[in-house]
Structures are given as structure tokens and as C-alpha cells.
Amino acid sequence: QKEVEQNSGPLSVPEGAIASLNCTYSDRGSQSFFWYRQYSGKSPELIMFIYSNGDKEDGRFTAQLNKASQYVSLLIRDSQPSDSATYLCAGGSNYQLIWGAGTKLIIKP
Amino acid sequence: GAVVSQHPSWVICKSGTSVKIECRSLDFQATTMFWYRQFPKQSLMLMATSNEGSKATYEQGVEKDKFLINHASLTLSTLTVTSAHPEDSSFYICSALLAGATYEQYFGPGTRLTVT
């Protein structure tokens, strides 16, 4: 069965530090990977996507993909209290995505 | 860009009645839309994939006669919960697929359904 796994957390990080969120996937055929942020009671918001091995940076966010090890990560630099949310990892081929259960991130002032 | 709206944002209905939820892509055309359900403190659960002009594809365990999906245009998909019961109370979220090299999904704000 195709799975995407995330540690449910909560992951507690001091304000200003780097938050590191990880995700592993089972389907080697997966080509595209996505990170979504979901605030409590709200719908998911796309943060980043990545489909090539290596790093992809966008502002304070860096997504990392290692297809050989089948893991994806999201780094958040200079963490802010507003980054406190649940982060969902999803991966798949074309539009068929498998979703992780999410990691709850808490940024402590 | 890539804005998706959903209406209504919340609805309360009586058991046995039907409720229709609309999902619109405002600034792009979406041949494919998705409907999810999310219970409190749980992850997203894909209910069905909606393709413009064709029948929706339902996930295993989702009753197609209870959750009617129509995708009549490139910007609108609707979900009708028929004969709603209290156990159908949930957060329903649609997403629209921005087709291209990476197939990002953009989510609507969600509809909170409460069945009394």
C-alpha cells in the first residue's frame, strides 16, 4: 500500500530557530512532492512543491528531496509564531497524491 | 493567482435533508477537482475526484449515491450531501488542480457542515 508517513508531533521549536519537518514515502514511482500548511479550522495552503532531487528554496522555506532514500523535508528558517500550524506532506504521480497525516509545529516565543 | 472559492462556508441542516456545496476556481480553469472530508484533529480524507464532463471517481468506502458530485464546467464542481445524518457533520474541502508540470492542488476555504 502506498503511504506517506510523517511524525505527528507536536514539534516544538524556539522562535528564530530552524524548524525541520520530515516525510517518508513508499511509492518509488512518486514524482512530485508538496508541502501544505494548515492552520486549525482552516483549509490547507500550498507552501512549496519539489520534483527534483536536491534543495529548493523560497524565502524562509527550503524543501529537500532525496529519491534514493525516499524522503522529503521542509526547513523553515527564522521560525515565527505565525508558522505554528500543521504541515502536510503529499506525494505522487500526475495528480494522484498520497497524503501524510501531518506534523503539528509549535513555535515558542 | 490560483484562487479557489467555496460556498457556503458553513451550513447547519436537519437530518434527512440535502445540502449542496459549490467549489469554484476563480482565475484558472480546472478540469479536475477533488473533494475531501476532514474530521477534527484528523488528516484529509479524499472522497472523490471530479473531472469536467464525466462521472466522478469515488474512493473506496464513499457512497456515490449519498455524495453526489457534478463538474459541469471548467470552473465549477458541486458536492451534494443527500439525506444528511449527524455522522456526516464534518469539514468538507475542495481543491482544484492546476495542471502542468507539477500538478499543484489549490484548496478552497472549506465548508463546515453540521447536521442536527
Task: Describe the fold and architecture.
The complex is a heterodimer of chains A (109) and B (116). Chain A is 0% helix and 57% strand. With 109 residues, chain A is mainly beta. In chain A, strands 2, 4, 5, 9, 10 and 11 form a 6-stranded mixed sheet that branches. Chain A is globular. In chain B, strands 2, 4, 5, 6, 9, 10 and 11 form a 7-stranded mixed sheet that branches. In chain B, a hairpin with a 5-residue loop joins strand 9 and strand 10. The radius of gyration of chain B is 13 Å and the shape is globular. Chain B starts with a strand and ends with a strand. The model of chain B has no long low-confidence stretch (mean pLDDT 94). The chains are: A mainly beta (109), B mainly beta (116). Chains A and B meet through strand 4 and strand 5 of A and strand 10 of B.
SSE topology sketch:
The complex is a heterodimer of chains A (109) and B (116).
Chain A: E1 4-5, E2 11-14, E3 19-25, E4 32-38, E5 45-50, E6 54-58, E7 61-66, E8 71-76, E9 85-93, E10 96-99, E11 103-108
Parallel strand pairs in A: 2-11
Antiparallel strand pairs in A: 1-3, 3-8, 4-5, 4-9, 6-7, 7-8, 9-10, 9-11
Chain B: E1 4-7, E2 10-13, E3 19-25, E4 32-38, E5 45-51, E6 57-58, E7 67-73, E8 76-81, E9 90-98, E10 104-107, E11 111-115
Parallel strand pairs in B: 2-11
Antiparallel strand pairs in B: 1-3, 3-8, 4-5, 4-9, 5-6, 7-8, 9-10, 9-11
Q: On the 0-100 scale, what is the average pLDDT of chain A?
A: 95
Q: Give the end-to-end Cα distance of chain B, rounded to a whole number of Å.
A: 37 Å
* Helicity of chain B, as a percent range: under 10%
Name the beta content range of chain B: over 45%
Uncertain spans of chain A, ≥5 residues at pLDDT below 50? none
Number of strands of chain A: 11
Tell me the distance between the termini of chain A: 40 Å
Radius of gyration of chain A: 13 Å
> What is the string of helix and strand elements of chain A?
EEEEEEEEEEE
Note the run of SSEs of chain B as H and E.
EEEEEEEEEEE
Largest protein interface? Answer: A-B, 18 and 19 residues
Major sheet of chain A: size, sense and barrel closure?
A: 6 strands, mixed
| Mean pLDDT, all residues of chain B | 94
Helix count from the secondary structure assignment of chain A: 0
